[in-house]
Write a structure and sequence with these properties.
With 475 residues, this protein is an all-alpha fold. The chain folds into two domains: 6-99 and 121-184, no CATH class; 190-356 and 364-474, no CATH class. It contains 19 helices and no strands. The longest helix has 38 residues, at 72-109. The relative contact order is 0.11.
Length: 475
């Protein structure tokens, strides 16, 4: 059941009604949410429910053992074992096929043959997200920053929370688990209107922008770059830059909006990332739940940079290289993450060599424009590695760019319009969003229903032949 299907909207409505009815009862509240989440997850594949249950059992019991012992050595063994087992489960279901294929290639290079794998592991949708979410809970309990869940069902409801289960945002226990322990707050007119607007905005981003760009240019250009001119490939790269933002932030908007209807407030996951003046700012605005997870649980866990300045750059490279592998078992993902780690390291080195006086004072306009353009095009360059399935495909894209051909026969006219609108929207003032939400909340319920129905009809008409799966469902 995909989030853009009408069946999901019906399921979300029924879920909101059921959960709010059960919310007043402490014992019933987590049970209903777990049942709804497992039903939703099983619509993809019933077998998916086994590894998430195993992960939840492992981390819940580890957390309780951690709070019941003060022995430093035993606590270290417990947290190390828990992290190892979590990563092992993730590796089996996400990286087994990749590791076996590359091991076979290494054996072949030395004239040996590795026996074929006795089975192929089916990738579990959402496993990367709920594994990181569950691991963060155990690490926070170990650090003394999080109280353990009161019961397993309550914890399982946190791990399997269906709005964020498939592709995040990666929600911390102190945000979601704390809200699970209380009855759902009453839904005010403003909260309900904002939730519906976020869901509608998510559908527009996904179906009108992301899917149209994917079906009408990006997929074709990346699969058959020899059929496109250099200028058309460049436009396809810009199109993918917009596609992945609208696709993923659209999912986040839908997930956060549905959570709001259920009675949960989740933090925003995107904040106009393509207006960033530096790579540091970009990662403060892009996939915020993921970037803060990398910072708190990998970067800060590495040896400190206080004694040796070079460790800041090394730790950044290692963190983002691992972050690249988290996205998928592919050398291109590793290169993508390493390039971002390199870009951040250069950014930190620049600030160290030429520290800016009065950091709160604005930069000169030309410097800001140059920073935005440089950051945006560096991100566009790295998206090539993210989008391509292999290094061979990457080389074909770069070969196409260096042909220096300028024909424009494969670009439908809506493509540049959608790219321009999406990039201009990055500069939409935040207070305009709040003003729009406040005005919409003042409308009568009938007017809101008519407006949202019109949006739904428009989206369905535009995307009637171009619905694709969310990109981050692969991770």
């Amino acid at each position: 059941m995909a989030l853009v299907e009408p069946a999901f909207l019906l399921f979300a409505l029924i879920s909101c009604l059921l959960y709010r009815c059960a919310s007043r009862f402490d014992s019933l509240r987590p049970f209903v949410l777990v049942a709804l989440s497992l039903f939703f997850y099983s619509t993809w594949n019933p077998w998916y429910c086994l590894p998430i249950t195993l992960t939840a059992l492992l981390d819940f019991n580890t957390a309780w053992l951690l709070v019941r012992t003060s022995n430093v050595r035993l606590r270290g063994v417990l947290i190390t074992t828990d992290i190892t087992l979590n990563l092992l489960i993730l590796a089996v279901f996400k990286y087994f096929n990749f590791l076996h294929e590359n091991t076979a290639n290494i054996f072949g290079a030395f004239g040996h043959t590795l026996p074929p794998a006795p089975f192929r592991v089916v990738f579990m949708v959402g496993i990367s997200f709920y594994t990181f979410q569950s691991m963060s809970y155990v690490i926070d309990v170990y650090r003394g920053e999080q109280e353990p869940a009161r019961g397993f069902l309550e914890y399982f409801a946190f791990v399997s929370f269906f709005p964020t289960l498939l592709a995040g945002p990666i929600t911390r226990a102190r945000v979601l688990l704390t809200q699970l322990q209380k009855p759902a707050s009453p839904l005010t007119d403003y909260q309900g209107s904002r939730a519906l607007m976020m869901i509608a905005r998510g559908f527009i981003k996904k179906l009108v922008f992301a899917d149209y760009l994917a079906v009408n240019l990006v997929d074709r250009a990346f699969e058959l770059p020899r059929m496109y001119s250099s200028l058309e490939i460049l436009i396809a790269i810009y199109a993918f830059t917009v596609q992945i933002y609208c696709d993923f932030s659209g999912y986040s908007d839908i997930a956060i909006g549905v959570a709001q209807l259920l009675g949960f407030t989740l933090p925003d996951n995107f904040n106009s990332p393509y207006r960033s003046e530096s790579m540091v700012e970009f990662w403060r605005r892009w996939h915020i739940s993921y970037s803060t997870w990398l910072r708190d649980y990998i970067f800060f866990a590495l040896p400190s940079a206080r004694r040796a300045k070079w460790r800041l750059y090394w730790n950044t490279l290692v963190t983002f290289a691992l972050g690249g592998i988290w996205h998928g078992a592919s050398w291109s993902f590793l290169i993508w993450g390493s390039l971002h780690g390199f870009g951040l390291s250069v950014n930190h080195a620049w600030e160290a060599l030429w520290p800016r006086r009065g950091r709160q004072s604005p930069r000169r306009p030309l410097v800001r424009v140059a920073g935005v353009l440089l950051t945006f095009h560096f991100v566009c360059l790295t998206w090539i590695f993210f989008r391509c399935d292999s290094l061979q495909q990457v080389s074909e894209i770069f070969a196409g760019l260096t042909r220096w051909s300028t024909e424009l026969v494969n670009i439908p006219w809506p493509i540049p319009v959608l790219i321009g609108l999406a990039l201009l929207a990055q500069w939409w003032p935040e207070n305009w969003n709040r003003w729009t939400e406040n005005r919409f909340a003042l409308w009568p319920a009938t007017a809101q229903a008519v407006a949202l129905s019109g949006v739904a009809f428009l989206v369905a008409w535009i995307s009637r032949a171009a619905v694709t799966q969310f990109i981050y469902f692969k991770f």
